[in-house]
Amino acid sequence: MSGSFTDDDGKLILCVAENGHTFEFNCNDTTSVESVMRFVESVSGIIFSDQLLLSLDMKLEPQKLLSSFGLPASDREVFVFNKAMLQSNSHPPSPEDLDLQEVDDALPPAPVHEHHPLDDALDPALKALPLYERQFRYHFHKGRNVYNCTVVKLENCERLTREQKVQQRAVEVATRNLEQYYRVIYQNFLEFMKRYKHQHRLHSDLLMNFGRDVEKLRSVKIHPCLQTDSRKCLLDFVKEDNLKKAVENCASSHKQFENKIAQFQQMFVEVKRKVEELFACRDSLTMKNLEVTVKDHERYIDEQKSIMQSLSKDVNTVKKLVDDCMSSQSSSSLRPHDAVSALGPMYEVHDKNHLPKMQACYNSISELLDFCKSKKNEMNNFVHSYMQKITYVTYIIKDSKLQFPVFREAMVRQDDLFADLKLVRGVGPAYRACLAEVVRRKSSMKLYMGMAGQLAEKLAMKRETEVRRREEFLKTHGPFLPRDVLSSMGLYDTPTQCDVNVSPYDTSLINIEMADVDRYAPEYLVGLHSKVASSRSSLGMSSDSSLSAEAIEISLDTLDKDSFEDILEASELVEIAGTSKMEVENAKLKADLASAISRICSLGPQVEYEVLDGSEVENLLKNAAEKTEEALHAKDEYEKHLLSMLKEKQRHCDSYEKRIRELEQRLNDEYLQGKRYANSTDVSGLNLMNEKVSEYNKADVEGNKAHVSGSEPMDEVSCVSNLSSKQPGKAREGMDENMVDSSQVLGHPLDSSMLESQQNNEKGGKGNVVGEMGVFLSDSSTAESPTKSLGNNVVTGIGLDTKHSDDIILELKNELMEKSNKLTEIESKLNRAMEEVTSLSRELEMNQKILEESQMNCAHLENCLHEAREEAQTHLCAADRRASEYSALRASAVKLRGLFERFRSSVCAGGGVAGFADSLRTLAQALDNSINDNEDDGNVEFRKCIRVLADKVSFLSQNREELFEKCRTLEATSEQTIKDLKEKKELVKTLYTKHQLGKQANKEKISFGRLEVHEIAAFVLNQAGHYEAINRNCPNYYLSSESEALFTDHLPNRPTYIVGQIVHIERQAVKQTPTLSASASPEAGKRDYLGSGQGSRNLAASSMSTSSSGATTTNPYGLSSGCEYFIVTIAMLPDTAIHQQAS
Description:
Elements: E1 11-15, E2 22-26, H1 33-44, E3 51-55, E4 58-59, E5 78-82, H2 83-86, H3 103-106, H4 124-208, H5 210-219, H6 243-282, H7 288-296, H8 298-327, H9 336-417, H10 419-477, H11 483-488, H12 514-520, H13 531-539, H14 541-556, H15 565-569, H16 581-603, H17 614-673, H18 683-709, H19 713-726, H20 728-733, H21 737-745, H22 752-764, H23 769-779, H24 784-796, H25 802-908, H26 912-929, H27 937-1003, E6 1016-1021, E7 1027-1029, E8 1037-1039, H28 1041-1048, E9 1057-1069, E10 1088-1090, H29 1096-1101, E11 1124-1131
Parallel strand pairs: 8-11
Antiparallel strand pairs: 1-2, 3-4, 3-5, 6-7, 6-9, 9-10, 9-11
Helix pairs in contact: 4-6, 4-8, 4-9, 5-10, 6-9, 8-9, 10-12, 10-16, 13-17, 13-25, 14-16, 17-24, 17-25, 18-23, 18-24, 18-25, 19-22, 19-23, 19-25, 25-26, 25-27, 26-27
Keywords: Autophagy, Coiled coil, Protein transport, Transport
InterPro entries: ATG11, Atg11_C, ATG17-like_dom, Ubiquitin-like_domsf
Pfam families: ATG11 (PF10377), ATG17_like (PF04108)
């Protein structure tokens, strides 16, 4: 896999997935992908045809340009895959090979003893300075080589880490690509399964209820107008002879297709499992710990840098001392001994601190490199196996994808195969929908014709208005101009008549009503017989009616809205010519109901098989119940509100009646006070009063009639209101506070008819005042008392003065008019209150309709409850049946329990094995003797098992003794065999020991010639008390004191000889006089090391590490001057067969 980064717009960094290597490619947006692939082939060795390039979720095609994929870009990545490595039979990646130089190969050679001017100095301190300079330079070069090797290894660690990060990104991109591909396929699978389940439920229901559907069609007779000799019922619409064979074919195909779908589902389950396993194994891939470890090891480089600075400083120091000594050798101011004593500790720090630390840092980085190398190999193997798994999973996903078209085609074939069954199911709903459509069209035609007539009336009214307006215009301006001028101007033209003519249509519809729909096409023909369908129909009643209303509105919207807006606004509730509001509303409701029935039938059985689980059905029913409860509660609250308003209106009416009675009493009192003027009235006044009384009585009768009939109250009220409007001051003076408050509460504006009557009465003048007064006196109880009082006053006042009587009558008339105006205002308020009560009554009727609808919903819910009860009854019957089965099973279990108890007592009986066999035999015989004809199969099987078990136990008990005897014989034989094995084991052990001793003797032979490291030597105690090696050619080989202490410290006496393996040989010579003291020069005690493994390099490297006290002028072994001798260090032999003997 590869990631692509761009340093700028002209460079593309390509990273190969299988190893994480990166390559830089100079390009631009016009570069073709083929050029990039050729470059990758040249630098990585991946063949052009085996390359797969990905950028995000896109595959780079060779024939396109980089600009087609938005490359090069700094925030994009490109990944290169090797198709050959993705195959299952491809070879695993080769391990990482790092060709790095080790420290041992890069170390400089040992310092050579080159001649230096100070080597000839007489002072040993000056003579030692060149040696220190050479040694310090050697330390510096050695440290620099270690540092360089450490840096190279750390860089390789970082490179391996970067490559692993590239591979990690590659794995993530490949995973995202597969995940996206899988998500698309899985979504297609879910959608396919959703469609299949819908089809499966529909087809299963068609097969299950085919007989019921046929019987329904056979039971429903078609309308008499539609019946023929060959068509009597709905079943005659289909070919019944071919249906049975079609049902068999459909059932077989349905079962086969169901099995295929089950296999397809299982395959997808397997695909999902493999994808999840693949994604799970990616979680184990992490690089965080490795990056932290590499970052932490950088401190070793810093530590080596500081050590190198210290070594460089020490080299410069010793070089400066040597130069100073050479320049001032003749001078006595410089003391070389001080300089040498200062260089000694520095040498010790180099040898024991700096160089070991640098070596330790190098070792740590080497271990880190080994760890990174192993992790890189693991990453290569992981990427290889992971990409192979992705290839395999992609293959099986593609294989499943290719099966989608096949199954979709199979679903289409299934639909075609079930077409005949769907035809049987669809005949009933289609027939019911057609009948409902006939009813809807008849109702719609009635509404349509009515609206046409209403439109004609509206246009005629507008024409009359226009004609009157033109006539008024001509009357106003016509006298001033000649008639021919007006005619030339076209002002004498009149609007033409508008004839709205609707041609007859739907004349061939059969004569049926809504009741005939349920009669000739019952509701069960629709097929929505399940709970889901019933709940859907109940919950969708209001929505269906609204949809039908919307359909009517849509048809009306085709008219010109500007011209017919008023008609459309009043098309629902206004009366249509020749019909009443009730008929219009009934026609509209019939149309809505028929539209709803047609819509339900058009939905067909498909609605029943939509994905709707039980919880959704319960939620819908619950919501419907809650809404019904809320509607009932709102109805109750509104009823209470109306009752409270009526009580309030009644209270106001009572207050008005009380006030009217008070006014009547006042009027009677005033008439009684006028009795004293009765004698002064003349006959003319009496006649006038009699005329007024007769007019009052006549007006009373007419007012009562008007009050009873209620046909013309509006004109009279409006006339009195005109009088009250002429005398507003007096009308307001008669009101008390209670009436003012009531007028504010009930003060509604007059309707249009009252205003028109008022305008007409204003034109009529004052001639109707007396009649208006009579009307209002007759409409109330106030009119009786004033009339009687007035008659009495007239009779008693014959002798009064005529003029004075006229004044009194005029005053009474004025006062009576004021009271009449007040009563008129009160009556207008009462009328407004009654209008409000009427509106509230209409609202109450509307709420009553809502209540009826709620009751219908409640009835439907009760039906649902009844269905639930029937279903519960069915479940109860099933539960009873299962209870009876359980009782039978329990009785059988009790019997088996008794048999098991008898079996347990037989098993637990004493007497050993023989008693157990006898008890089983007895139990079997007892069970055979107690055979009953009514026993079930379980008891019979148990009896057979007991009998077989008794026979087998008897057989086993007979063979038991024989087996015991054979076991005793085998035990005796086994004990004898064990004894023989022990003896032979001892013999084999002795022989093996002898064999080992022989091998030891052959392998560890003592060397008696030239002694070498790793050989075995024997040392004998000589007369001087020293252990000297037994050697034929080279004498003077003595055992070192350390080795002698190793072999003799744990022994009470010194052995006569010692045998061991040589680990070190030190050559020395007996000298007469030393040239330098041991403390002055590091060469005073120079030693040579002889060994077979390392050679002269190790000897030279360790020559300076010996102690200066190794050389001595004494002769511990009594040798002559100048004679060479060797000090040998040995080690004990492991498991040696040679033992030291005490002397």
